[in-house]
Amino acid sequence: QVQLVESGGGLVQPGGSTKLSCSASGSMNSLGAMGAMGWYRQTPGEQRELIALITRGGNTNYDDSVKGRFTISRDNAKNTVLLQMDSLKPEDTAVYYCFARIGTPAMTYWGQGTQVTVSS
Question: Is the pLDDT confidence value at 44 over 80?
Answer without folding.
Answer: yes
